[in-house]
Specification:
about 30% helix, 2 helices, about 40% strand, Alpha-Beta Plaits, alpha+beta, 6 strands, two-stranded antiparallel sheet
Length: about 90
């Protein structure tokens, strides 16, 4: 299954450790956002490795991507003229 994984960690050392762990499992697409294709065993391994690093207040979110419809992409773009988000579906 394919996932988007994002994190919000205030401690610099832990944030760097989480990024190193995620680099072993997926591709960085933004500073704190990764995409990874993980089977059940890899998901369990990633959870174990992150569990060693994470502390109270750290946040890691996993979002599954629907591979049945891989060409669908949902984007939110900031429109500086009207100062509101614009939703696009490709």
């Amino acid at each position: 299954m394919k996932f988007v994984i994002a994190y919000d960690i205030s401690n610099d050392k832990r944030r760097e450790r989480v990024a190193r762990v995620l680099l072993h499992f997926g591709e960085r697409i933004q500073k704190s956002v990764f995409v990874a294709v993980l089977d059940q065993e890899q998901q369990s391994e990633l959870k174990r490795e992150l569990g060693v690093v994470l502390r109270h207040g750290d946040r890691v979110e996993w979002f599954p991507i629907d591979l049945r419809n891989p060409d669908t992409q949902l984007s939110w773009l900031s429109d500086p003229v009207c100062q509101q988000a614009v939703q696009t579906i490709e």
